[in-house]
Amino acid sequence: ASVVKELVENAIDAQASRIQVRIVAAGRRTIEVIDNGHGMSEQDALLAIDRHTTSKIRRAEDLDNIVTMGFRGEALASIAAVSRFELVTRRERDDAGTRIRVEGGVLRDVEHVAAPVGTRISVNRLYFNTPVRAKFLKGITTELSQCIDAVQRHTLAQTGIGFHLTHNDKTLLDVPDGASLRERIALIWGLTFLKDMIEIDGEQAGFRVHGLIGTPALSRSARSHQYFFLNRRPIVSRSLQYGFEDGYRSLLTIGRHPVGILNIETHPRLVDVNIH
Length: 276
Description:
Elements: H1 2-13, E1 18-24, E2 30-35, H2 42-48, H3 75-80, E3 84-90, E4 97-103, E5 106-113, E6 118-124, H4 131-134, H5 140-157, E7 162-167, E8 170-175, H6 181-189, H7 191-194, E9 197-204, E10 207-214, E11 226-230, E12 233-235, H8 238-246, E13 260-265
Parallel strand pairs: 1-7, 11-13
Antiparallel strand pairs: 1-2, 2-6, 3-4, 3-6, 4-5, 7-8, 9-10, 10-13, 11-12
Helix pairs in contact: 1-5, 5-6
């Protein structure tokens, strides 16, 4: 699920409008993420898989204004070190794409290939060279559920991007790029959810909060349908969770939890993504 999350976030940062995620055996055998973003040059693609060579910040001041999902630039190097890894990428202005194959952190092959604009990354046999780490993976059902959750969170946060998720060639999620938040909820959870959800939008002290929340009739026995986003980045925050539930205190019985998708927007300098 961490690999899926990192690859999807890279695709978002590449300004893709369509992201396809293909998983085989809950990701143990294959994880493939394809996007139609701006792609990379051969030089950048080779740097992207090398340790300590890439970052999405250009100046020290950028640390106070982080607007990308990732910024350290270490994910691809880490993933390529523990898998059979293939990257195919092409920019619009290039005549040919670049294909790079890495096996357990060792560069095996670099060649020019025909490829559409964007990037395709295939991660095969994760942890094949570190079997001890492979033992810490959960069962197929748990791993798959965490992969689905990672993609769903971004699907709800990134309303301008289309997502297509398959597992063992069976489609689990298909959301077009033009779908609104309401339409995305309908495609993920069903139309019955929508009739008991209301829009909220408020602004105060440099923060804007907007999204959809459920009426008390839509309560759940778990917090599985509470999603919080900060500048469209999925986050987990106990204080936000308690604040959200506090608004329903006199409306729900004990043991029931409200439903909501809330996006909080503020200036990036007010947030330290390493801490918060």
